[in-house]
Amino acid sequence: MKKRKAGSVMNHFVQRDWPDRPPAIKGRFYRKSLLIVLSITCLPTAIIGITLYLLGSSHIGKEVTSSNEALLLNAVKRINGDLNQLELTATQWAFDPRFDGSLRNVDLKDQYTVTQNLYRTLTVMKGFYPLVDQVHLFVDGKSPVVVSDFDGIEAVSNPGDLAGYRAVMSSKQGAFWLNGFPRVNRSDDHTVALVHKVPGIGQPYGTLIFYLDRDKLVSLVHELSLGKAGSSFIIDEKGRFVVTEKGAGLPEGTPFETALAAEIKRHETGSGTFLYNFQGETYTVTFGDFTRLGLHWTYVTAASLSSMTAPVKMMSRMIVGVSLFGFVVALLLSWLASKRIYHPIHRLVGLFHDERRAPDPPSDEIGFLEKQWRHLNRESRELREKLEQAQPWMRSSFLLHLIQGHYYSFTEEELRERMNAYGWSMDGKRFLLVLLQVTGLSRLQGRFTDGDAQLVSFAAANIAQELTAARGEQADIVNFQDLSVGILLSFGREEPEEAARGSAFQLAASLAETICAVLKVQSTILIGRPLPRIADLPESLRHLRQAARYRDVQEETQILSLEDLLPSMGREAVPYPFGAEKEVKQAIRMGLPEEAAAAVQSFVEILVQEGGKEMFVQDGALQLLGSIQHAILEAGYQPRGLYGDDDLYAELRGMRDPERMTEWFRVRVIKPYGKALACDKALHQRRLVERAMEYVKENYDSDVSLERCAEDLGTSPFTLSKAFKHIADINFIDYLIQLRIEKAKELLDDTDMKVGEIALQIGYQPSYLNRLFKKLVGVTPGQYRERKANLE
């Protein structure tokens, strides 16, 4: 695949902007050339098509008619031959010694050996001729019986059947055909049968009856049919149906067959062909004679003229269709030939001429073409400039998709061809991928926020671009927009891998120093292994991202080599602060969100100090998240109710900075739990205070105390006192005193009880009530009652 030049793209746009269309106005030369070509190409085709239609239709019709007649004669001969052979076979068996006159006096039911021999003989007779369905032997003795190859020995118990058999025996003929002769004891089972008296010589004692197979007889008659649209059947001299295409043995014909049989009876000749109209359809009818032993049969076959002439019509239509197709092809070729003959200058004018702007064609075609050519050159230069401006963006976009594995279906050759097309020199090159990862934004105290990830990535990519350009490295920068930047280095196949890796380490050191000095952030640079194939870049990126988890989160800048990390990956001991995790879970269970947040911070700090590597910090944080959710669940809160459908694990996996993890735990995990806990705690305190007030109202006249009330309500005095002060804004004792004083006022107003009795009634001593009443109301209980009486 060669590199596509900008000019080819320009030509592509030009072809789309200027379609190839014929000139707007055609002259006399075009019309004359078109008529000449039409005459040359179309007249021979038309003459050939008409001749083929006239001659071919007649010939095909004759051939189809003669072919159908030959098929019909062959079918009639075959049926005659089959029936003649059966008659000859029946005569031969009638003269067989096994059917001599000795059977007349034999009791077949007792003579097992004779009966078995008869069974075998009848079975052989049936198998000798496939057209036979069953063979019966009627023996007219003391007990008339019928011996069958199928049913064995059956006594002729039906008087009608016995009369029928004896009537057959009384016939003067030795062998004859019967149409619809019933089987023994089956008056409804009829078929065509050949009857032969036995023995063939002498006084007969019975008959051999050959019942023909209905299905095979019907198939023979079906061979007489000349098409699907028609019918074939055999009738006897009385006009009764012997066999139709539907069945054999006294069948009932269709209305068409019944009408046709009546029409045949009116013909005096024994055979012939004629046309017959039935319900608007014309049929060609052929009939002939069958002369059988004792019977005179007539075969009839009728076929619709439309089915007979179908091949002729089809061939005629094919001839007409081919002729029309040839004529259309001739017209098309004439039109194409005339366009080729037409003057080429008009094609050029039609290519550039716009009828919407200029309805009339230009008078100076050469000047018009020169003007259009200059216009196309100008547009070509503009398109080439736009393509050159867009090529860097297309190049970087292709490289980004390549490294991310979007071109996995491309082969190595196809990828190298694409890179050659975008300006890379791929001959004899190997590649090395370097990954720059920026972290530590949360340590900058407001200089950067989490939303500035793309800005920081852009700045890091620009720094990498400038450094590689200053060092003269053949490198390409890929900005992943997620605080990571890829650097694709290329080197020759002859260059040692150690030299290439050494150059990559020097570039990494310079890049780490510059990133730290300019952006004031942490940076980790990972150096991959040399790759001989472009297709291995996505796999190298995946390994580098996995290796990035082995960075030490406490280091400002790190340079890691994939070659050095691969042997030790997965073998390190896993540090985990179980004690700090226990403190976090205990604070969650006790409902102390502030203490829980502080414990999380301590957990992350210990994890960083003991583990150090990003992989261990992330794994430990994920484990802590699961433990916190379990503790919240044990506290009676559903995590889904606190966090909704948010995927907390996905959010946590995307974090690399320990400080950001700590803040995330405080805001996203512990704070929602604290809010739900505070809300539920206030509701619990309100209900507790309401129950305490009800308790005081019911027991104010007894020895009520904070401790006893708390014990009866199932809580502690401290909790009850704190809740009372928070909800009712009054101490428990003050509320009890106010309630008792109000009860004392009610008793002083509504009763004549003495002050001492009232004091005991509300749970006070009289002297204590006087002092307390005067302190709160301003007067003694007696003075309060006198003042009330004076006012009334």
Question: Would you write up a description of this structure?
Answer:
Helix content is 57%, strand content 15%. The longest helix is centred in the first third of the chain and has 67 residues. With 792 residues, it is an alpha+beta fold. It has 27 helices and 16 strands. The N terminus is likely disordered. The strands form 3 sheets. A 6-stranded antiparallel beta sheet has the order 3-2-1-6-5-4. The chain has a 5-stranded antiparallel beta sheet with strand order 8-7-11-10-9, sandwiched between helices. Strands 13-14-12-15-16 form a 5-stranded mixed beta sheet, sandwiched between helices. The radius of gyration is 58 Å and the shape is flat.
Structure annotation, total helices: 27
How does the overall form come out from the CA principal axes? Answer: flat
The total strand number stands at 16
Main β sheet profile: 6 strands, antiparallel
Distance between the termini: 118 Å
Low-confidence stretches: 1-25
Name the structural class. Answer: alpha+beta
Portion of residues in beta strands equals 15-25%
The strand order across the widest sheet is 3-2-1-6-5-4
Q: Radius of gyration, rounded?
A: 58 Å
Helicity, as a percent range = 55-70%
